[in-house]
Every structure is written in structure tokens, then in C-alpha cells.
Design brief:
alpha+beta; seven-stranded mixed sheet; 14 helices; 24 strands; globular; binds ligand 86X
Length: 480
């Protein structure tokens, strides 16, 4: 029995707990290839939900989905060596077709800038061709040398990559921020994970970008996780790929570009942030199954009547658009079923037993707090709907409290090191802007600057490393 449920406590060994939950809940399975995993029904369903939500958002704002080849000629990546140099050791190559050596080896896309922007150069002639706002959902391969971890760092993963080209710098800037806002909405209001948003420092930004904006969450072990990124590419790629247009002024201009992405990494964050000692806890808005109905019919004389009621409620829930299942398997006990659905993180369980039937009620058990309540049989659907909403907001509130608890403001380096040691999480401190201080802190503590908050939240203090005046307040953390 013990090998069915989770055997490691989240608070005892977080890393082992994570792996156990991911495997036992039916989220992922290891594959024969190191660093490549199988996305099972539980996780793929969450991915589909993320796709559904994000597709709706970007289509509303005029983006369209496309699909580019997964092979990128070596010469394309070389053209961009300035921006991709650091990544070269991570590229996987195809060198043969059948038994014939290829004339030019092909990279398996680690990201698609080069192939997409070479194509933009063909598509764009005049200002009338702009803007171009495209997105693709695809797989990506990066031959990681660091230890891999399901969802967080795998050699193959799924993502969306958005790529846009605009007439003006202002338009590109707005695009970067609009997408950042949509990402934030997905993360906070669907996945129930609060994030900090801001700008990367020069040493942490994408080399091909003018600036990189980022969304960062904190995991229960105190490490930060980058949840998504939206880049302002300026005219950097337009110069390399010669993407130009004749403007209304009849002069030639280079386009202004953006790129942005989120990946299946978000699913790893979901497990880490909300899961507990019994397994997954799914936020209702992305839960593959929102409600499970378990009839308690063993040894019950009125099992027929119980089942009938259960089916009635199931149909009503479905009609209202909820994803509900009726677990009427006779070969398992209710207790076994409870454990299994808890492991899978189903937010609400409806129990109907002989006593419930007699009193014309149902018992509702919520996954986040394990609290049980009863509702009148006729109000079961309404009560469930309300409970799902409550769970969604409670999960967010709980995660938000953790984020706050794991954020420490410090004045000096001693305080910095102490906070990092004792509490982990985000350290809010002033930084003079010198990359050398940033690098020293990284070397000495392992923490990096995760982001600089946006203008409106700006504050100043003495640099936590060198003590220089009027440094800007930034967020440091150790990270995944
Ligand atoms: C950076 C930049 C950008 C579109 C995103 O962050 C969102 C979606 N792309 C990705 N990046 C690389 O450019 C890269 C390149 C190579 Cl060749 C590689 F092997 C790994 C990479 N990793 C990240």
C-alpha cells in the first residue's frame, strides 16, 4: 500500500517529495532517454489548459499561430553567433539522413529566432506588411549538461514562442509589456502562483535583446523559478537578418522586434507550490478533473439509490461545464479512492453515503484544507461551484503568503548572507549597478539578481556589496 501513496514529506526532503509526486500522481514518467520525460495525461491536460487560455488571449490581440520546421541549418545559427555563442554546447545536431552524411548539419531548434527572422526578411517589404505577430507551440531541445529535473530542466520540453515585428520602437515596447501582463494573468489567476515582474540585469538578459522582462516565482525550498520571459529585441536581429521595410515616408527602416515564451516548466512550479504530503493540489481553473463523486455504497442496502443520486449530480455538474467524474468502481474501497484522487489533486470530492442519502445531503471535501462540509442534495452543484472558487483563491492567497514570508529586505552584506542562509527566498537589497558587485555576490553566495522592479516601484539605498550611495533596490535569490 505504501508504495502507492507519497512516502516522503514535503518538509523533510523537498526534492525527493517532488519527484515522487510527479511520478506517482501520473504527471510524468521517465523515458529511456536521459533528460527526456513522458508527459502523461495529468500534466498534458494542464498544458492544454494553458494553451487554451493563452491562445484565447493572444488571438484577441491579433496574434496568429504558425509552425516552423524543427531543423535549423548550421549557417543560420552561425550568422547569429554573437547572440548564441554561449548556448552552442547545448545544441543537438542531425548529421545524417539514413546512411548519407548531410552536406550541412542541422540543429534541432533550441529556439527559433534564426529561422523565423530569416523568413520575416522575405515577408516584409513595406510598412503595410507590419506588424507581424506570430506564435508557435512546439518542442525545443537543449542538451543540458547540468542535472535534469522533471519539468524544470529537461533536454526536450514544450513551449510557445511568440515573435513579432513592428514599425516603431514604441509599438514593440508595448507588445513586450502586454505579453508580460498576459503571462502574469495566466500564472496568478489560473495557476494561482504569485510572481514578481521586472527587468533582468545586463548580465542576466538574453544576449540578443535590448532588455529582457521576466516573471519570477518562489518555490517552497526558497529557490526562485523563472516562469516566463518577454524580450524587447530592438533592431538587433533586424540588423543581422536584414529585416527592413519602406516606411510611409518612403525611406528604408529596420523593424523593431519582440520575442516571448512560457514552457511546460510552469507545470513543475504548479506541483511544487501547491502540492502537499498527500500529493498534487490542482487549482480548480486548470485541474484536469475538478470534481470527483465517490458513492459510499459498500455494504449499503440503498446502494442503488445512492448511485442514482450520484449520477444525477454528475450530469448536473457536467451540464454546468465542470469536469467531473463518478468513481463507481466496485473493486476499490472508498478509502482507497479518496487517497488516489487526493494524490491526483482533484480539488473537490463529493461523498454520498447512506446517511447522506437519508438526510438528503452530500458531503463535500476540499483538497486544499481537507475540510468537510455538507450541502443539501438539491444545492450540491451550487455548493461545489462556490467551493471551487474558494479553493482557487485560497491557493493563491496561501502562495502569496509564502512569497511574502520568503522575501527579506536587508541593508548590508552580513544581513544578506544571514537572510539567504536562514530563509532563502528573495532578498531585497540595493545594488549600485556595477556588474562586478553582482558577480562577486553570485560567486560568494550563489544568489543572482532575479529582477529589477519596474520604474514605478523604484527605491534606493546603499549598495549591499560595495556600500556606494543611491543604488537601486533589486531582488536577489538562488534559483533553479
Ligand atoms: C534564449 C530567447 C527567446 C523565444 C525566449 O526567451 C523566449 C522565446 N526565444 C531564448 N535562448 C537561446 O537563444 C538559446 C540559443 C541556443 Cl543556440 C541554445 F542552444 C539555447 C538557448 N537558450 C535560450
Amino acid at each position: 500500500m505504501s508504495d502507492i501513496g507519497v512516502t516522503v514529506k514535503k518538509g523533510d526532503n523537498f526534492s525527493e517529495w517532488y519527484t515522487e509526486v510527479v511520478l506517482k500522481s501520473g504527471m510524468a514518467e521517465y523515458s529511456p532517454i536521459k533528460g527526456c520525460m513522458i508527459l502523461r495525461e495529468q500534466s498534458y491536460s494542464v498544458w492544454e489548459k494553458i494553451q487554451e487560455v493563452f491562445n484565447r488571449k493572444i488571438k484577441e490581440t491579433g496574434h496568429r499561430n504558425v509552425y516552423f520546421p524543427m531543423f535549423i541549418p548550421e549557417s543560420f545559427l552561425k550568422k547569429e553567433s554573437e547572440h548564441f555563442e554561449g548556448f552552442v554546447p547545448e545544441v543537438a545536431w542531425v548529421t545524417e539522413g539514413g546512411s548519407t552524411k548531410l552536406e550541412e548539419k542541422l540543429a534541432i531548434r533550441p529556439t527559433s529566432e534564426t529561422i523565423i527572422y530569416a523568413t520575416f526578411a522575405k515577408w516584409i517589404r513595406s510598412w503595410r506588411d507590419l506588424p507581424i505577430k506570430i506564435n508557435q507551440w512546439c518542442n525545443i531541445v537543449r542538451w543540458e549538461t547540468k542535472a535534469t529535473k522533471p519539468f524544470l530542466r529537461t533536454r526536450e520540453f514544450l513551449w510557445q514562442e511568440g515573435h513579432t515585428a513592428h514599425m516603431t520602437s514604441e509599438e514593440a515596447e508595448k507588445e513586450v509589456m502586454d505579453i508580460l501582463g498576459e503571462y502574469r494573468d495566466v500564472m496568478e489567476n489560473y495557476l494561482a502562483i504569485p510572481v514578481l515582474v521586472g527587468v533582468k540585469t545586463d548580465s542576466e538578459k538574453f544576449a540578443g535583446a535590448l532588455y529582457t522582462t521576466t516573471l519570477e516565482a518562489i518555490m517552497p525550498d526558497g529557490k526562485a523559478l523563472q516562469m516566463g520571459t518577454s524580450h524587447n529585441l530592438g533592431q538587433n536581429f533586424a540588423k543581422v537578418f536584414d529585416i527592413k521595410f519602406i516606411g510611409e515616408d518612403e525611406k528604408e527602416h529596420k523593424v523593431w522586434q519582440t520575442s516571448w515564451g512560457i514552457s511546460t516548466r510552469l507545470i513543475g512550479a504548479l506541483v511544487m507550490v501547491h502540492g502537499d504530503d498527500k500529493g498534487l493540489v490542482m487549482p480548480p481553473k486548470v485541474a484536469p478533473t475538478q470534481v470527483v463523486i465517490v458513492p459510499i455504497t459498500y455494504k449499503a442496502a440503498d446502494s442503488e439509490a445512492i448511485l442514482e443520486k450520484a449520477k444525477e449530480i454528475l450530469e448536473k455538474l457536467k451540464a454546468k461545464g465542470f469536469t467531473a467524474v463518478l468513481d463507481d468502481r466496485a473493486e476499490y474501497t472508498p478509502g482507497w479512492k479518496f487517497n488516489q484522487w487526493e494524490l491526483k489533486g482533484v480539488p473537490v470530492r463529493i461523498e454520498i453515503g447512506p446517511r447522506d442519502l437519508k438526510q438528503e445531503q452530500v458531503t463535500l471535501a476540499r483538497r486544499d484544507t481537507y475540510q468537510k462540509t455538507t450541502a443539501k442534495m438539491g444545492e450540491a452543484v451550487q455548493a461545489t461551484e462556490k467551493l471551487l472558487e474558494e479553493i482557487q483563491s485560497n491557493l493563491y492567497a496561501r502562495a502569496k503568503a509564502v512569497l511574502e514570508e520568503k522575501t527579506t529586505t536587508v541593508q548590508d552584506y552580513e544581513g544578506f548572507q544571514k537572510a539567504l542562509r536562514n530563509n532563502g527566498g528573495f532578498i531585497k537589497a540595493a545594488w549600485c549597478g556595477n556588474p562586478e558587485c553582482e558577480e562577486k555576490i553570485k560567486e560568494e553566495t550563489g544568489a543572482t539578481i532575479r529582477l529589477k522592479p519596474f520604474e514605478k516601484e523604484k527605491a534606493v539605498g546603499n549598495c549591499v556589496y560595495c556600500g556606494k550611495k543611491d543604488g537601486e533596490i533589486v531582488y536577489f535569490a538562488k534559483s533553479y
